[in-house]
Specification:
- The complex is a heterodimer of chains A (165) and B (515).
- Chain A has 165 residues and is mainly beta.
- Helix content of chain A is 0%, strand content 60%.
- Chain B has 515 residues and is α+β, with helices and mostly antiparallel strands.
- Among the domains of chain B are: 100 residues, 3-Layer(aba) Sandwich (Rossmann fold), CATH 3.40.50.20; 69 residues, Dna Ligase, domain 1 (2-Layer Sandwich); 84 residues, no CATH class; 51 residues, no CATH class.
- In chain B, β10 and β11 form a beta hairpin.
- In chain B, α4 runs antiparallel to α5, α5 crosses α6 and α12 runs antiparallel to α13.
- The longest helix of chain B is centred in the last third of the chain and has 18 residues.
- Classes of the chains: A mainly beta (165), B alpha+beta (515).
Amino acid sequence: MTYEVMVDGKSHKLELARAEHGWRCKLDGEEFCVDAVLARPNVISLIMDGAAYEIKRERTPTDLHLWVKDARFAVQLHDPRSLRSRKSAAGCGEGPVKVLAPMPGKVVRIVAGAGTTVEAGHGVVVIEAMKMQNELKSPKQGVVKQVLAAEGASVSAGEVLAIVE
Amino acid sequence: MFNKILIANRGEIAVRVIRACREMGIRSVAVYSDVDRASLHVRKADEAYHIGPASAAESYLNIAKLLEVAKRSGAEAIHPGYGFLSENSRFAQACADARVKFIGPTPAAMEAMGSKTRARQAMAEAGVPMVPGSKRGLEFAQTAELADEIGYPVMLKAAAGGGGKGMRLVRHPQDLKSAFEAARSEAVRSFSDGEVYLEKFIENPRHVEMQILADEHGNTVYLGERECSVQRRHQKVLEESPSPIVTPEMRQRMGEIAVRVAQAAQYTNAGTVEFLVDQERNFYFLEMNTRLQVEHPVTELVTGLDLVHQQIRIAAGERLPLAQRDISVRGHAIECRIYAEDPDNNYFPSPGTITLLLAPSGPGIRRDSGMYEGWTVPIDYDPLLAKLIGYGFDREEAMSRLERALYEYFVGGIKTNISLFRRILRDPDFRAGRLDTGFLDRLLSRHRDDGGEESDIPENGKARIAAIAAGLFAVLDPAGSLNGGQGAQRNGAGTEVSSKWKQAGRIEAMGGIPS
């Protein structure tokens, strides 16, 4: 089996073949012998050259991560046989910057309405979730171009609340 | 003794009380809102009743509904846990009127201590040392006047508040107005009481509190202190007992004052007297919490007393089993509050589905948890998921056990603050016991370069292992990679899962590793 693996944005070529004890792996041309057992769903116990690792797979609504010890890696895996490289480019260019809701919640207050001049770090919108109010700050100095959230509105994670230019 | 107790709460504390009931041979009655049908406390209880929609005001704060369930189930007593109605004297009174025993102090004692402003007044009269400030709630104009008089920085506090809600620190006069309004509106929303008062802000104090127990026969004892200085946004994050700075002599002095405070209010059941301690170890009465505290387990571990058992026994009319001279503090315990919040995003709450949960155990480790794998953390309540407590012969041993347990603890699918505790436990100031309420903000403002684990493998070595593991997962556990079936949305039968969670589930199903 051959895969293209992206780890934190860096591409690796991985070949896996069953061996007598475990697996023979070839990663970017370098060979390893690995013993791997699925301990339970989402947890692999891995032994490599005598060193033991418990690898955890973490799935969230938007991402997939693998944990090696205390390090967390964003991972994408492509099987070159299936030509599926649909990519939703989340473009973040220059110019207008969006203020996003970092979590689902309720808009309790608009601090800086459209047309307000704001410094970087100046509050724009206050949202509330889990009984905590959080002031979302402008990521840059500029003018609030547009406020897309209304006071009292429920918003989901990732929703654009305001645009600062 | 009671035969059946209703627990008017949710989450880890409801589970905690249900366990105590089972240990004492008492049947437990859980209550749940729409979004809590699948919560752990409902699974653990002997009986469970639906009490209303997600909104706490219509469920966990709904006095009439709770008493109706008590009547229907035949519960003879109600344990309120912490938060929600635990410090609401109207609820305690309503229980008394319905002839259901409220496991806590009397309405009169709660009223005397529950309003921070009235408590301050009473304690000033009893000669307990106090921080300068207003003795009662103020309108904005008076607040501004008094703030100018005692000098900035000042602290605004909701009179009915607790847990950091409705509290605002104000450093400059021009910020007072918006802080005042924010504190007031938060107070109205959280406690249905907009009374806000003002206090001089003591720079970098310690927060040390004394646990007391009082029976209904006039006996009151103190059970040692808890150091609660590790806070963020006035919310406790880590607590320990004993405090690294409290000597036996100071403990006795503080304990005796705490007992005096309780007796002045004719207090019964478990309670906590909070003190601010300045750099010279002077302590000032802050407030009394008329409930079981979140951090009660550290006291349980160092005294050997089960506080929930004691609460129930006291409420049933029993006498305290111990006199003050029989109580001693042995060993050291530290508690970490595991919150559903994102360390990389300013510790914002992070609800969602727990897709993987690996829980620590072993010597000196206690875990009080309200979560389980596959459970969706609702967005409607406090983000506290669990408490991890380490106990040892001394502080050093408690710290190393806790660090080891944190290494074992894994919560996947949502963000938690577990990594924060690794940083705290490795911090030289923390290890030396040099704490104050500014400690955590200072730690967080530093770069995270001290956060890495000492390890024999370099970071790029770990990345290569991750790459290999990604391939192995695709082969060994393809189902989990693709269809999102394992750990998918399960939110209780008959419960409407909101559209954003459905949406999230769909993204999850599409975004997995193709095998």
